[in-house]
Amino acid sequence: MNRGVLLLAAALFVLMVAAAPAALLLGMPYLLSLFQKLAILAIAAAGLNLVLGYAGLPAFGHGAFVGIGSYTVGILAAEAADGALASAWLQFPLAALVAGLAAALIGAISLRTRGVAFLMITLAFGQMLYFGAVALERYGGDDGMIIVRASAFGDFTLARGFGSYVFTLAVLAVVLLLMYRVTRSPFGFVLRGAAANERRMLAVGVAVPSYRVGAFALSGAICGVAGVLWANYTAFLSPAPLAWTWSVQLAVMVLLGGAGTLFGPLFGAAAFVLLEEVLTGALQPWRLDWHIVFGPLLLLVVLAAPGGIAGLLGRPQHG
Amino acid sequence: MNARALVGLVVLIAIVAAVILNQLRDDGEGVRIGFVTTLTGGSAAIGQDMRDAFELALDHMGRTMAGRKVTVLYEDDAQNPDIGLQKTERLVQRDGVQFVTGYIWSNVLLASYRAGIAGGAIVISANAGPSELAGAQCTPNFFSTSWQNDQTPMAMAEVLNKRNLSNVYVLAPNYAAGRNMVAGFKRSFRGTIVAEEYTQWPDHLDFAAELAKIRAANPSAVWFFFPGNYGTQFFKQYAQAGLLAQIPLYSTFSIDTLNLPQIGEMVVGSQLTQHWGADLDVPANRRFVDDFRKKHGRTPSFYAAQAYDSAVLIKSAVEATRGNLQDRDALRTALERANFESVRGAFRFGRNHFPVQSFYVWEVVRGADGAYALKLGDRVFTDHADPYAGDCRMAAAP
Amino acid sequence: MTLFLEQVLNGLQFGVLLFLLSAGLTLVFGIMGLVNLAHGSLYMLGAYFAVTFVAWTESFLLGSIAALLSTVIVGILLERSVVRGLYDRPHLEQVLGTFGLILFFNELARLAFGPAGLSLSPPPWLAGQINVLGIPYPSYRLVVLVAGILAAAAMYVMIARTRAGMLLRAAAANRGMAEALGVNVRLLFLAVFALGAALSGLAGILAAPLLTVRVGMGEEVLLLAFVVVVIGGIGSIRGAFVAAVLIGLIDTVGRAYLPGLLRAAFAGPVADAVGPALASMLIYVALAVVLVLRPRGLFPTAARTDVAA
How much is the ipTM here? Predict the structure, then answer.
């Protein structure tokens, strides 16, 4: 691993940990909200990175798996008014399982195609799930619905606050550690090898498609976990995460940070969330939206720094 | 450590410093109000009208309430519940506002109100009136300066009843307010309803398929709810399809002073119901309408009138508590009295904090100057309370 | 029966608009291998230009022509400044870059034309109805239908019968070979992009009187245009036409009849909820089915569909 990348990642993490007491001392609850959003998006982007970055498959429907996670929380909260189903011990595994299975199924079908067709078919499945969520009028349909009960491990609630913030950071750390292990396992080598040269992998007798379906399942499950956190963070259930623009934004974070690198998703999510905040504030006097800067910036990254932020910090030595 | 990493670190620190600096604010003694409305997209004209009216109200009060300076932060919800929620949260968490008002759309309000209240603010809807907030989910720190969604279409249904219309085709967008509007219309309408159709919200603007169905159903009248720009589109396409001369159109919240210049010719002679109009003869209203026209060269819409009222309502509470903004309970008690000169004339708050007020008929007329306007007609309901108020068990304030 | 016929006409009219949008996209996709998300922005700009120029010239026709030319100029500037640098990039990077373009163009439109939605009325001579097989159909919609079919026919003739079309087919089939044989590929790419911009702009101009012209209108149709391109087969104009009409019909007729059919089959609230959702999903289901059965679309071309992303 490149030392510059490691340094920046460590700095960002220290900052996020330090933000919790700082926000309390300075009376800035918004700071905590901002960093928590960053962490959740980084988890989802890390999940997507396995497919998009390491396996090199242009999947553009991962917002749907985040959505499955948040609907798990919302539906269980709505169905048992006494909160019997609001246990996080139940919700995390269930969300990961459902999102993972959905991802495996969608992956298995989509992998029959490749290139642009693959991109489109993953997007199409994402849209189907989006309209499926819109049809759930019992759970707010298009309008969405306030989630009245946060997930909880016993007495430890994931409702917005200091505790849930620290928990989110811990999940981010665990997910990044998991990604570190997975991408260096034989499974990860097959994914990366097939991304570089699929024929060679097939020629040595590796069942590439089943590895890729596995990658889809794992990445979907991680996005499902991010969805549980997202639902608790916003306390609002809505089809928004399933919309294609959300999927594209997740992909933008991965690419902006550096696809196929361990910390790329974290950098990308940080750039996305923090730049939005800073640019929105800075451009307010002119009544300009931050997109007028962010759009050209994305273009610049593609044309001048296709490796993203991680690439700018130095040549990544396989992650 | 290499140079690139150092640059990266410096950039990171600079960005985070900027984020923190962004949040520093002068807490002071001032009154801070967040205003969440739609300032971009097809419905931006409504949001702009509300903003203009709110600014006019501030002008009228010298931009102070009980001697304290008033700061208003306008935020754009892009007509989207998720964005409305984010903006509301930002206003209470980052900007520390004591009041959040605005809210055109019921689904945006339903997504946002809880975050506003949880953040310590009092939420005042200046338009949206979802049934949930009037009934089962009514809550102490929420108020409305408009109406509950069902009421205006209920009054409209009475107009159709008087004309002995039967076989009416009903259309509305499929979101919280659309469903309330239809429920209200059905509650009072005594004829038969041929079909009840909901269109996708908010992107559905091409009504060709719906118009084909209406033509085939051949009802004796159509009643619909498509607010603002959606109403404009519906009227225009209805006329283009040649249906205007065949099947009479009735609507609620679909003709207003903002879209009247574009559709006046098609709707002249139409009747509609409302709780307020520019020609309502109330001293506060004359001042509001005259000054709005002087400042902006157009007649304010009902959205504007409600926004104006919400500013004056807030002022009444801040003055009653002598500017003690920390005491939310005292502010709420003051708000409950509705002790201010509303542009609609006197009204009181029901126990669910929605207005109990009168509704009238207005007719689209062509004035001597050739411009289209709304002319006040008969009163339909007097001191009308919304049908959900009975379900409201107002809890003690948290 | 007349209701069904009217819905079919509506579906065809929608399909034809989709074709105009997709034709340029499929060429740019097929020949240059570019996934251009910003294609929808040209549609939006066409609509904004139409509203502006029709108001200036006080003539629908003159205004539309000015709008079309302006969109083409924007397209040419866009190709020469930025898009050219994206042709040889992986699809993922193209998506990132052109997504950036969408954000930029949306903000630009907001600055130039204001945040509020704008509306445009069809010209008075098209405000009435024309009788089509007993249905009084809005004249303007009929004009959209005819204009789209004429554009499709013109494209077909150009590609199948002219020298420019031959070069285009050659470049689409084998870019390297065409280049080696002396075709000025850079110029050809510019021309293709400008043609795509023109068609997309035309779609925006024609759609302006049917919708509200606003920021973000490009993204709503962009996705549908991509569905059309992929179903039709990347790079195939004929495929785009067939797929566009198919998608237009499936979407319109599905929305009109599917909820009713479901209600007839399984009465109750479930059908009420599932019907409209299924109708919205229908085109994506169609896409998935086509891609699983025919991964290269209905009319596969020799274009670079299987280039790794």
Answer: 0.92
